[in-house]
Structures are given as structure tokens and as C-alpha cells.
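Table S7 (text form). Paired inputs.
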Amino acid sequence: MKYSYNDISIVPAITSKISSRSECDPFDKGNLPIFTAPMSSIVNKNNFHIYEDNHIIPILPRNYSLEDRIQSLNDGKWAAFSLSECDRIPNSIYPVHICIDVANGHMTKLYDTVKQLKERIPNSIIMTGNIANPETITTAIDANVDYIRLGIGSGFGCITTSNVGVHYPIASLIRDSVKIRRKRSIYPKIIADGGIRGYADINKALALGADYVMIGSLFAKCIEASDDIYDWEGKITTQQDYNTNPLFHKFYGMASKEGQNDLYGKKKHTAEGICRKIGINTTIKQWSKNAEDYIRSAMSYCNAKTLSEFKLKTKTIIISINTFSSINE
């Protein structure tokens, strides 16, 4: 039996020497362990710095021109590229952060491309995925992948599993992948991508051993997530007061019809994602502050002052559906 976030719960330490969550450090090199998904409905040039200012790591999505994304690399930022674009990334003597954004992270061609990039640009820092088989971690290690995204079919806007049938429940996928990685190497860093429905899921992913989480739909609730804001009737509006006027964002991934339109100007393939209307109820700043505090709280319960301790010390248990329902009514 394999499990998802709803099937597990974090167990606190027998005793904790931490008397205040302020003693816990949820940051990694100044950032929370959180990436934005490289989606055009979530990240753009106008809000890129807002995510950065609030300790979240953004990735410039593929709907921007190749020149724009290469400039992002030159600025020391993350940018997403298709597999076919990788040979057009110029050589650099400086570290460049490349996200190879493909749906099927099991392709041999992907790892051959990583090896070629590493040979051509030794300082490149490469993120691949998505995968749904823990054994693929060994392939990623052999190719010197730096970050790998786990999860197929878990995202709020993804319909891959419901139509294709490919899936590996995300909680078990993290745990099983971490076990395999520990036998071989400390790399690649593991990113739990998709299925994060709230702050608790972030903590569960980290407790299972993920180094980072990647989030899309939760950011759609933030007023700054997209330039287009819709009113109750579905019309684009310039309103900003979401407390008195119901406002919405359209959330979709790059495999949806809308995402393909952003990339190609038309629907090019059978869609494996859908567009959802998500109500706006917060700002990126407030969301980030809440995430920081909730991660700190979980760490304090588990007697972990650092993220490394939290990943190593924390235990999780399987819970019944009745238990989950009782704490989420």
C-alpha cells in the first residue's frame, strides 16, 4: 500500500527542548524550502521579485522568450527550458540555474541531455523531473542532476493520472526516493512537486525527507500571482480589494489548453491539465509569513532547530480516513 499526504500525520518528539518556535530556523541560504511551479499563471516578470523578497524561489516559465530566460540565467535566477532548447543555452563560466521542464522525467534523452550540459557548462545547476518511480533517482544521480521534481498527477490542475493512469502516491514517492538516495548520494536534492493543498502538506513533505516543495495552486490565492484578476462575473478587473469584493485568478499548468496557448499561441497537444478559478484571499507576503511560522511550529514540536534536523529526526505515521476527516471538517 502506498500513501499520499492525507494518509499520514507527523509525530512530535517524545520531549522537545525548544520552548519557542522562534528558536527554529526554516530557511536554507536565506530562502524557505519552497519553489514556485514554472507556470505562466503563477510567475511573471512583474511578480518575480515579490516571490524573491518573501523568501520563495521563483522560476521564470517557458512562455517567455528564449532571450528573456537566458538573461534570467545570467542574472543568477532560475529559468525553465524545454528539452529541445537546452542546446541553445550558451556556455557560461558562472553558475546557471536550469530547470528542464518536461512532463516525463523518465526519458533516457533527458539524462543524456543533462550529461551534455554538465560537460559543456560545468557550473550549471540543473533541475529535472517529473518522475513517479523512486528507482529513477539512481539514473538522476549517475547523470549528476542537482534537483529532481517528484510527482506525476498530484497537482491541482493536472489530469494526467485520471486520463493516463500513471501515478505513485506522493508521500510514499518521497519516502521511497529518499531511501534510495541515502544509499547512493546526497544529490539530487528532492523537490516534492504537486499535491500541496495547504501548509500542513509542506511540513509533511519535509518530514518525509524532501529538501523542497514546489507549489502552484496555493499561490493563485495571492493577489500578485497573475496580472489578470477576475471579478465574480468572470470579467478582468483592476480591483484589488479582495476582502470586500470576490476576486479570482485563473490557475492552470503548462500542459493545459491555456498553458499551451501561452507557449505556442494555440492548443498543440491533447491537454493533460485543466484551468480552475481560484479565489484570491491573501498576498504573497502574508502567505510566506504564514508558511514560515507553520514550518517553525512543526519543527518545534519535533525538537528540530534546523531543516536538516527536521528531515532526519521526524517520524510520520499512517492514519485512517476517519482520522483525517475528524481533523479537517
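Next pair, protein 2 of 2.
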Amino acid sequence: MPVTKDQVIEKLKLVSDPEVMDREGRPVDIWEMGLVYNIDFAAEDPSAVNIKMTLTSQGCPMGQMIQRDVLARVGQIPGVTKTNIEIVWQPQWNPTMLSAEAKARLGMDEA
């Protein structure tokens, strides 16, 4: 059975930026933060997952740890043979990219 985008998203929801905590002290995952811009599969090898993502800043001290966690989590999906991560800086991440759920958890939905 081929790997699906939904399977990848479920694994990405297990990866968090340990520097971003909600009001209850729980980390917010990179999917809800809006750090993942694109997920696709290599045409020549559909078992290879390509992830285009960013970090909260170019100097993000947790960047390498987040990338390692993405590789490990996505690599757990049956059928995935390779995960390619491309870090991009355009568009630059900003808090408006947070999901509505993440904004609520962070108290950013209050006017």
C-alpha cells in the first residue's frame, strides 16, 4: 500500500519545537505551527517523502534536532524508504502561519 500524505502529517504532528510551549507548558507541533510548507513523493520513487519546511528563525537553536526528529518519525511509516527535508526561508515564517488550534493554545486568539 502506498504511503499517504495523511500518514506523513500524523507523524509530523508528533514533532514539536521545544522552544514553543502553550499556556499549559506543552510543546506545539511543527504542523500546527505552520512550519511545513509542502509534502510530496518522488515521482521516480513514491516511497521517498519530500518535505519542504522552515524554522521559526534562521538561527533556530533547535533546528537540527527538529530535522532529526522529522527524519525519525517519518521513517517509522511502513513503506517509507527515504525522507528528504528541504529547509527554505521564503516565505519567512511568522505567527500568522499558526493554525487556529495553535493560536488558541498559545493565547493568540484573544483580541
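Residues 63-75 form the longest helix (13 residues).
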